[in-house]
Amino acid sequence: MKDWDRLITVEQMEAATAALLENGIKVGADSWQQRAKNQTPHCGFGEAGTCCRICSMGPCRITPKAPRGICGCDVHGIVGRNYLRFTAGGSATHSDHGREIMHTLYQTREGGNYQVKDPEKLKRIAREWGVETEGKDIYDLAHEIAEIGLLEYGKPFGTQRFLKRAPEHTQKLWSEAGIEPRAIDREVSQSLHMTHMGCSSKPEALIRQSLRAGLSDGWGGSMMGTEFSDVMFGTPKPIDTTANIGVMEKDNVNIIVHGHDPSLSEMIVFYANDPEMIAYAKENGAKGITVAGVCCTSNEVTMRHGIPMAGNFLSQENVVLTGACEAIVVDVQCIFPALGPLSKCFHTKFITTSPIAQIPDSDFIEFHAESAGENAKAIVRTAIENFKNRRPELVNIPDLKTKARVGYSVEAIKKELDGVCNSHVDTYGTTKPLIDCVKAGVLRGAVAMVGCNNPKVRPDTAHIELMKKLLKNDIIVILSGCSAQAAAKAGLMDPDAKEYCGEGLKRVCELVGIPPVLHMGSCVDISRMMILASDIAKDWGINISQIPLCGCAPEWMSEKAVSIGNYVVATGIDTYLGVDPYTKGSSEVVELLQGEHGVKDWVEAHFIVDTDIESLGDKMIAGIEAKRAALGI
Amino acid sequence: MGLFDRVFRGSDEMFAKAEAEINAVVAELGESAPMKMPDTAYYLSCIYAYLGKKVTTLGELRDALCDVKAMMTREHKTKDIFTSGVGTAIAAEMIEACKYARNPAPYEGTNYHGHFTDAEVRTLGVPLVTRDIPGFVVMIGPAPTKEEALETVKGYQSRGIFVFLIGGIIEQLLECGMTMNFDVRVVPVGADIWSVGHIISLVVRAAFIFGAVQPGDYDGHIDYSFHRIFAFVNAYKPVNDITVACGAGAIQMGFPVITNDTDDMWAVPKSLIINENTQDWIETSLEARDIKIKVTNIDIPVAFSNAFEGEIIRKSDTQIEIDGSRVDCCEFCRTEEAQKIEDHAIILDGPDFDEFEPGAKICLTITLEVAGKSWQTDFEPVVERKFHNFLNCIEGVMHTGQRDMIRIRVSKAAFDAGFRARHLGEVLYAKVKGEYETVVDKCQVRICTRPEGCKEIRAKANEAFIARDARLKSMTDESVDQFYTCILCQAFSPSHVCIVTPERLGLCGAVSWLDAKATNELDPNGPCQIVPKTRCTDERLGAYEDVNEAVCKYSHGALERVTLYSILEDPMTSCGCFECICGIEPMSNGVVITNREHVGMTPLGMTFSEMASMTGGGVQTPGFMGHGKQFIASKKFLAAEGGMGRIVWLPKELKDQMADRINATAKELYGIDNFTAMIADETVTTDMEELYTFLTEVGHPVLEMEPLM
Q1: What's the complex ipTM?
Q2: Do A474 and B77 touch (CB under 8 A)?
Q3: Which one of A440, B12, B160, B631 has the lowest number of neighbouring Cβ atoms within 10 Å?
Q4: How is domain A245-394 classified at the CATH fold level?
Q5: What kind of fold does domain A49-233 have according to CATH?
């Protein structure tokens, strides 16, 4: 196999980071690398999940000498409760993001800050929900759907509307397991209730609720977040962009958007392209304006507009350390409070915008859907005016930049697959071409790789090394969140990265015209992957759990990731983790989550945890081959 | 059984057969017996291409078996079925080679074609580039009925698709009386599946010749066939394992397979397509390989396709013969004022074909009158020269010659189908309007069959031809302001760039300076781009900075410098479709030229194929140069090395064909009369020593020239 020379290695990225940290030292900046050192070793009880501080009798920590808490709860109950609370935190977060989107949808109007850019999708969902679309003004429909969607959060009866999208077999499993999510807020509340002092301590009940709270996220709040972001901002389709820290431009005003909710960043992107603003930037001595992103806000705007991706979760300090960041504008989730003091070491404006994420040492410009345009303009203006405050001696933008093709929504993937259909024998608009490749063996299977960075894992290495291993083995990889950005930073999202694949996947990439790893969006967009898996199962006529497919989060760190893991497993997809979810203190919880007769008996899938990345990859490949063998292919 | 296991089983079968055949032939003839395929410079091409080994003896052939075995790996990955598939193709070539080890012409007297010569491969260059041949189909096995076989093959033929046949379909077509040969682009390759080795041999030689892909560069060969050879396979059921294994090789090369076999068969998008409706295969296949056919609907009662270009019409089958060597005939394109033209008028002056006796030899003139705002009189010869191609594509019509020396035969079958004189006009109108739409606003065709009328028209045309020649003659490299690039071939030869000048036409012989000019005006962003000639750095060599910049740009950096008039210093590259190849003969300090049609040996100890393999694919090889026939008589031919006086040997047929022009130029350059008498040919000698003796005897001017090196 030819060595493909455009790949940026982890070593190169680390060298660039080291140079940036040198920059930081000059101005006395702190860094996550240093703080991680200071925090090591981590608390063993916390890591094992065996510390309970739910009531004030404790904290209770379980040891061989003290096997039960003061209330009498054993280690399995404590670990199970902690796991459920962790899940509920993630589910609440994703779902609240979805709720914000629904509120924004409610604000859409003709000619307004927010509009309906994909009316067809809106109508499709309306029909799915049994809402009459004929003869209705598209904005009346949008408002009606927004209200119905918002009711999904608190409706007194019934289960989530989107569950009907799953194959019947999956719906049946959910029903039989008693994990069909009801109102989203109810599942979060009930999780907190169940884990309150003196409620549930039976691991099985706690894990069941974890799956249900997860499903309320993946098939509820997250799915609404994704679907209605598409309605408002457009359903992503393939678009070329660039990635890694070198996308920041030395002579331009650099605005970094960071966080998760696209409502703000969409506006920033719009006004950064405004001729008036560009002229203003030039007046202020810059050549232009560059908007780049980190984390999932970046994923949102790159999927729809090809906005360059400066980095992922653990790159957030790097963009400031370049000394060329005029403003880092954040919305919600995964924002380091460290950005406050760090920005003070440079000229960078750290602008917080959401009442949900209020951080010391930031400029708070509260963002409202009604005044979004004005807010965004003020932010862009602030960044431009800050250009002159740069300290040239501190400017250091590492020359690392790759090409990436992004924008693979389920709709876009099907459209790409249509491109290899033959009109004389095939039907269009299905996942069948992909299925045929898997059946014939040209592709062995697929892996949905997702999740964050975590200093416990050498950043990006697990993502990139696992991807390379899978690609060589003819396994196609779909990505979201910071995993997607790891791939983009390395160059694996460049269609030329097909050179890194086995012959089967390489040929598929050539014929379909795709990169070997497909960017499906932000972490909320993992809901897209659930829809894709459902469609494959339906088109193939098998159960989701039979598809040679697995999920993988090798560097995960947030509560959201645990919530995701729960709904991916609950959907019937085995999920491989490279970081332990604070459960190893309880053999019973480990057995429930990872054993052959826990959640696997309910939903036909389970977790596999292995912190040895090489071994994790081997297990995934073996898992996929086992599913093939079971299907007789 | 899975697809992969079928491929593995089939490739094992093919390998076992190859092993048995080779062992048998080695036992019979000995391992030192020579192993050579006829008329190729590429050894056993598949082995040479994919493994990089030159097989010249049976022992070497046997030794290659273990290399092939090594390709047949058995993991359940696509890579393994791909290399096993290509290994199967090589094994097929080996099986066929054993036949040639015993007999240089094993298919003589059979209905099968077998091995393709290098010359045949090279003739495909231009039509592939121009998309006259938009693709190739390999059809395997018997079709459901012989009628369907005929209909499908004719369907491909009418779309210009080159058809290779293997197995039962050949018998079916023979029963139908179908004409099959290389010229009509329907080739019955062989009865057994291993004859597929000949087709893959042709594919890899295209990559060698036009793509300059190196021997042993497996990935390079795969990449070339995938991106540049628009082939596909039609395999009728039952498709056995060995055919499935060949199919895997085809798919690795980028050629989709279409089959109607559903038994243990696995669809793979765009690669292995199952369509039980065999009557729908043509369209299914073209779509699978992304071949788009430009359809010109011409209102004539017979088929129209470039597959008929090579059709021969025998005298006994001729209804009407138009023979310019006996009576007044001509074809002529002239510029006319727009108001005097009624667009699409076909005006017949004189009796029509049905008013003559069958087999009559008649006089006929065709005058195409053109008007257009962007039309220039310089385009007249460009369009006129295309008459030959256009009329030859008519089923049942054969056209040769040009100007007033044309010969056209209309077959009885075409006549019976209703073909009449005006249909010649219909074809010209449709094609000229179609291909030159940006410059031709209106055109009409006048056809005359009255002897007096023909005489008058011929005389007028000749006046125009004389004037045109005078202009062409006055048109020299010095008299024009610009040259043109031609990168038409880059679809096949990605790093070659032709520089076309008035005195040096494109090496394929198909693009003159005027053609290039017209092409540029028709499509300003097309293959012919203007090269200004403002910065000459060496007049003798014909070196220009502008030219260097152009070749560098259009070869994407592969070439930095070329000269226009030297064979030694940065000679111009070639794509591989050249008509002639010229190489230095060191003993006399002269050059030897041979052409594609000449299969014999030259005094260099190399045939055309062997000399041609020294260059091509955009590679610069000082001492060897591909060129067009007409360039031989140019004053600029090897001008840097002293000109055409260097020519010491030419194949007789080429020499005779070019004699008048060569002699005229020699007279002008050196004051020598009848220079061609001093040039040796194969009737004089093909031996270097004897050649030198001959040159000394005739007092060839090269002996007085400075040494070349």
Answers
A1: 0.90
A2: yes
A3: B12
A4: Rossmann fold (3.40.50)
A5: Substrate Binding Domain Of Dnak; Chain:A; Domain 2 (1.20.1270)
